[in-house]
Amino acid sequence: xxxxxxxxxxxxxxxxxxxxxxxxxxxxxxxxxxxxxxxxxxxxxxxxxxxxxxxxxxxxxxxxxxxxxxxxxxxxxxxxxxxxxxxxxxxxxxxxxxxxxxxxxxxxxxxxxxxxxxxxxxxxxxxxxxxxxxxxxxxxxxxxxxxxxxxxxxxxxxxxxxxxxxxxxxxxxxxxxxxxxxxxxxxxxxxxxxxxxxxxxxxxxxxxxxxxxxxxxxxxxxxxxxxxxxxxxxxxxxxxxxxxxxxxxxxxxxxxxxxxxxxxxxxxxxxxxxxxxxxxxxxxxxxxxxxxxxxxx
Length: 297
Hints:
By secondary structure, the protein is an all-alpha fold. Helix content is 73%, strand content 0%. The chain has one domain (2-296).
């Protein structure tokens, strides 16, 4: 019981630290690519601490509860994801539960932003929900392919199967779903070419425009958790997870750096272009992969 409590406490802390580090690393690497020095790696953490000390303005009860729902949903998802040997809620549900819980992030932001009644916020929320709908379709095919191949919905068992065999990404039946996940991962992370939700040049940061003080700090923390979840899910499903958090972090770091170079190389798509892309190539690749797995079985 004590071990389980420690795992429940440790998993979100590890996810937060990794997510915040990735946020700082992304600023640093992008600055270097643009021939700038960039802020320190600890800048996102400094920003969060500073924001907690600033005055906050609430727009109502739903505004407050929405961001809490979004952050809470992300924390619960982390508890289902194995981080090395840490997997406190792995026996309480499978990948379909994770898929449903991942929807709480954009839903909570939508509820909170809707209470603010800012036009820029409304546009950002509509983009966020449309983008989520765009990548949820191929993501569902990807998860169905993995579950069908390993004949289980348990992400822990999927990781264990990869330890006794090859990683899913280098296994022929799951190669196509793995490629499809890499194709939608920038959309899950909200980076270019899918940086349509905030788009400061167009809609003044979208859903974040009415956040300040504690609310903006919580939004930043939720963003860090979302970053961790998107990459951690890929590492567990297609790169064999890890035997300890350190190796797990190194695998996540490699995937994140690859995504950062994509972020630096591609311009932002319009929202209709983003959905058209997500429903075409990633969905087609994931669907072909699912059919191939069903035939091979």
